[in-house]
Amino acid sequence: MALIVQKFGGTSVANIERIKNVAKRTAKTFDQGNDVVVILSAMSGVTDSLIEMASRITPSPDKRELDVLLATGEQTTAALLAITLQSMNYPAKSLLGFQAEVRTDCSFGNARIVDVGARRIRELLDNRNIVVVAGFQGCDPDGNITTLGRGGSDTSAVAIAAALNADVCEIYTDVNGIYTTDPRICPKARKINRISYEEMLEMASLGAKVLQIRSVEFAKKYHVPVHVRSSFNEEVGTMVLNEDAEMEGVVVSAVTCDMNEARIVMKQVPDVPGIAAKVFTPLADEGIVVDMIIQGTQSGEKNDLTFTVPRTNFKRAMEIENKVAEEIGAEEVLGDENIAKVSVIGVGMKNHSGVASKMFASLAAEGINIRLISTSEIRISCVIDEKYAELAVRALHSAFGLDREE
Amino acid sequence: MALIVQKFGGTSVANIERIKNVAKRTAKTFDQGNDVVVILSAMSGVTDSLIEMASRITPSPDKRELDVLLATGEQTTAALLAITLQSMNYPAKSLLGFQAEVRTDCSFGNARIVDVGARRIRELLDNRNIVVVAGFQGCDPDGNITTLGRGGSDTSAVAIAAALNADVCEIYTDVNGIYTTDPRICPKARKINRISYEEMLEMASLGAKVLQIRSVEFAKKYHVPVHVRSSFNEEVGTMVLNEDAEMEGVVVSAVTCDMNEARIVMKQVPDVPGIAAKVFTPLADEGIVVDMIIQGTQSGEKNDLTFTVPRTNFKRAMEIENKVAEEIGAEEVLGDENIAKVSVIGVGMKNHSGVASKMFASLAAEGINIRLISTSEIRISCVIDEKYAELAVRALHSAFGLDREE
User: Which of A19, A172, B95, B108 could be cross-linked to B63 through a Cys-Cys bond (beta carbons 3.0 to 4.6 Å apart)?
Assistant: First the structure.
């Protein structure tokens, strides 16, 4: 007798057969006496093909109108699931973003949820309906349709779960849960049973693509228990929760690897006030997000300045910084696209010392040179040469005791 | 400096190239200083393929949910046209049915427009936007998405034109206008320059599929001038207007032919009170619409009862009436699917006598037997054998002076 929000991604609703499977799963949860709200993505591939259709008109389609176009993807799957459930004699009703009162700001293409009214959802639940909500979409204060950006249906689901004070938000996906590392890189990867919001946030921002990062922020803010699990089997997946004593006992929960960054080194930058602003403002002006920044500690009046940018922005960033270097009198700008950022993550780190040194020692033992280091309270990241990425992940996974028991 | 509503059907927006053509046309009207509102249908074939998708789940999909699904078709074209206009540097904004405040009743799949708020459209026009509205869809009092039935975009366009008090509602289609008869049947068919709402209503209900009948009712009620014209050329089409002296001078404006009906004859029906109700109530209960009804005038206690039903309902109607015949003691039920209803239409008929006799004489001269006759103030219809349909149309077209001058 719980209130359960279930979110199914694009692969889970990729065709009529799979939509029927989702319907069976949802119906089963409903039959157990639970209230059920289902959030759906578009069929896999549909969003991309809609974008492709718009790009045949113009390379930069109007963002407001692109959102109107993209919103049809989730509208389609929501209607089809409701039709399927009705055909099985379950009382199902679909709601679009505006009908479910998913209110967002006006950032078309990447809108943020401001709040969820959910009056209509509650009414339908009170009458024992299964409520099917089109994910990824909302409505701005002027009544325009907005979309939430890649993976936005996760955020729809968690925000709706928060508004309804749901007992759990189940995120159905094509993997069994969150793993200690990418199983394709490290066959000894284990499924994690429980993980804290903080750890999940670090993992999401480091390229583990199971959950959209904003959905985790939402879950953390409103204490929504999130259950990441497979839509293709009945196994229990990973619970994302507030940290607890059990989690704190584990020093490192996961190892991640991000190969989507590139490194830029500006050599011999004059050490005068305001120089950092001169280097980074032109990047920010073009919307290029700088991740790690290290200022070398050479003696004298000039320092090396090293930082990372998304690999997709690398060429443009190099152009910009070559101009900057000339203006400020730096020696030269070097770039390297072939890097990887490996990280160890764990809330237990807060109470344990020696994690960093163990990490550095493990990499050194494999002969892997560390190019950059950055840390947070629950994470240590090292940038290394890309060719060592898999080796580093396996070494760290083993060193921190995460390997699956044989 | 007029306010012009333009409606483009499915063939006019069938692909990106054609949407670009629509954009050019709309932009030209805008450049001439007019305010422009564009109403779109779904790309041709899309509505059918969405229905087909739903029918792969169940033969009778839930109507509310089917409307949510179908509404994506017009949403897609509206967004694509707005994207196209924006890419040409025209200020365009799309609106869905609920955003344009197209308020309907709750009859999913066949909703009737109750009223159009149009506040949002006016606001956008005041800021010199081209407003693109998704046709065919509206919103019921509970905020559910509804659709208006086949050809519903015509009604969207006329209703919005009425709400805005537009100077004209242009209906773009794949023909050059309304013809005196079907040019595929009669090569001498001429385009009509001006036709009255009443005549257009008779033509629409008799199978001339250029305009949805409800859109004509709307136009008549609110005196909206409708211009039916081709989206593939610049020719002036047909104006649908209040009747005027010029129209009244023409006795017969058009000849139509409807081959979508079937005839049922119940022989020797006892002539007692209440018998008609017993024959027709079971049909009404199944939603079968009876068109013409003729009760024979034989002497004695038994009469033949003849009527027509849509050909798609013919088999079911025969099953029902065979049962009825047994119950009421009628002799037998005969059916004929191979009939055609040819009609002559003209507001001038009101002031001219002899139209009926001229029609009967023309058919007789070709050796065509008349099976059923029905009339209205501005129409005379005869049911004949289907095989004579084309011959009858050509004979009547010529007899009433409608042939194109060579």
Answer: B108
